Amino acid sequence: MEEYEYEAGEAGSAGTEKVSAGSLHKGDLVMMKDHPCKVVSQSTAKTGKHGSAKAMVTGIDIFTANKYEVTFGSGDMVDAPLVKRTEYTLMNIDEDNYVSLLQENGELKEDLKVPEDEWLKDVTERLRELFEAAGDKEVIVTVLPAL
Q1: pTM higher than 0.70, yes or no?
Q2: 108-113, strands of its sheet edge to edge
Q3: What DSSP letter does each residue of 52-118 carry, written as one string?
């Protein structure tokens, strides 16, 4: 009997799942032009003489806040990013803007940097204010990795 060896490969869709474009609603997450976006509006056009029904979707990139508009066929299966929310206790923010986060298992996670993007400046300032004013209270940070 012959033995075969198999290797797993990636199809380029790790971190996503397929959803029907026609079932998207406001607040859902979907990949738009290779960006993970939150749907802010969605409308459908009925079937006409030129083919199938269409779903017009407007979304905001969850990381950059850029706006994207895409038209999908209502029956199309489109990629939706798999986003896992993880909460950590903020322990420190160093001078290089790296944070020390306490994980549930008691270990420190120190590989994340506070956002320095201009559009997130208010979030960064608020995080520093909360950390400095915390005293004996905990500051909980939610991290949203995607893709």
Answers
A1: no
A2: 108-113, 98-102, 86-93, 140-143
A3: S-EEEEEEEETTT--EEEEEEETT-EEEEE-B--EEEEEEEE-TTSEEEEE-TTS-EEEEEE----G
Look up residue 25 and give its amino acid.
Answer: H
The C-alpha angle with vertex 69 and arms to 144 and 118, in degrees rounded to 5, equals: 50
Full pLDDT tens readout for the chain, 147 residues: 455 444 443 444 458 899 999 899 999 999 999 999 999 999 988 876 667 788 999 999 988 889 999 999 888 999 998 888 889 999 999 988 899 999 999 999 999 888 887 877 888 888 889 988 988 889 998 887 755
